[in-house]
Design goal:
The chain is an alpha/beta fold and 251 residues long. It folds into two domains: 92 residues, Beta Barrel (Elongation Factor Tu (Ef-tu), domain 3), CATH 2.40.30.10; 144 residues, Rossmann fold. The protein has five helices and 15 strands. It has a seven-stranded mixed beta sheet with strand order 10-9-8-7-11-12-15, covered by helices on one side. A six-stranded antiparallel β-barrel has the order 1-2-5-4-3-6. It has a two-stranded antiparallel sheet with strand order 13-14. The radius of gyration is 18 Å and the shape is globular.
């Protein structure tokens, strides 16, 4: 982890309210792992007070790519940056995905903005990748040019009609557990259903979780998630995660 300034190389709207920003920061790009995040100070003043955490979408050469949803004042300020502007970043932070080699079926499953960490993971993963992306409607689907994409929308406006776990059940439920590795990121409800699915079929799964954060590196203790392996215990999303084996946490 380190503090550094990064210059904005590109920033643009992917679809309504969803922005992609590409930052030039060679040191961070060199060590970034899929599933890690960086904390950005979005202005040079003390407002907003806290940095904003963003999952690393991709890292190539001297650049890091982030994806963010326009939600509040912090992301609004970020969206108004222009090429050549500078921001201060902290990171890369947290523990990311650990790609598993020698698996026939590498499965990415994303809900909405949960697609964000997968471009970098795709670069680091060996074997056949299949990507399942879900949302309530086509407006929530973010594809990011991921490999072998299949889409699920609850209203049927794109792809399979139903939720993405139902699509996953249809496509991979009969495969031997030793031939499947699942990596998931999305809303807690989706991850909870994914955990039930993996337990049912004995699939191994790593998930990237979300939580409100303050410091981003474990000092404030402000992002606990309940441990499934330590009775009465907790893990910190920013320090012990945000990526966990799905069996390690209560969703």
């Amino acid at each position: 982890m380190f503090l550094a300034d990064a210059s904005v190389k590109e920033i643009f709207e992917v679809k309504p309210r969803i922005h992609k920003i590409i930052l030039n920061q060679p040191e961070a790009a060199k060590i970034a792992e899929p599933g890690q995040f960086i904390n950005i100070r979005v202005s040079e003043t003390h407002y907003p007070l806290l940095r904003r955490p963003f999952s690393i979408c991709d890292a190539e050469g001297e650049t890091i790519t982030l994806l963010f949803n326009l939600l509040g004042e912090g992301t609004r300020m970020l969206a108004h940056l222009k090429p050549g502007d500078s921001v201060n970043i902290m990171g890369p932070l947290g523990k990311g995905f650990k790609p598993v080699k020698g698996i026939k079926n590498q499965i990415f499953i994303a809900g909405g903005m949960g697609a964000a960490p997968f471009p970098l993971l795709a670069r680091r993963t060996e074997g056949k990748i299949s990507t399942f992306i879900g949302g309530k409607s086509s407006r929530e689907i973010i594809e990011l040019d991921l490999p072998n994409r299949e889409i699920a929308t609850e209203d049927g406006s794109a792809g399979f009609k139903g939720n993405v776990i139902e699509l996953l059940e249809e496509k991979i439920s009969g495969k031997p557990p030793e031939d499947v590795m699942i990596y998931g990121c999305g809303p807690t409800g989706m991850l909870r259903a994914l955990k039930t699915f993996c337990e049912k079929h004995n699939f191994v799964c790593q998930v990237s979780t979300e939580c409100a954060m303050a410091c981003g590196f474990g000092i404030c203790q402000g992002c606990p998630t309940v441990s499934a392996t330590e009775p009465g215990g907790y893990k910190l999303v920013c320090k012990d995660g945000p990526v966990f084996d799905i069996k390690e946490i209560v969703l």
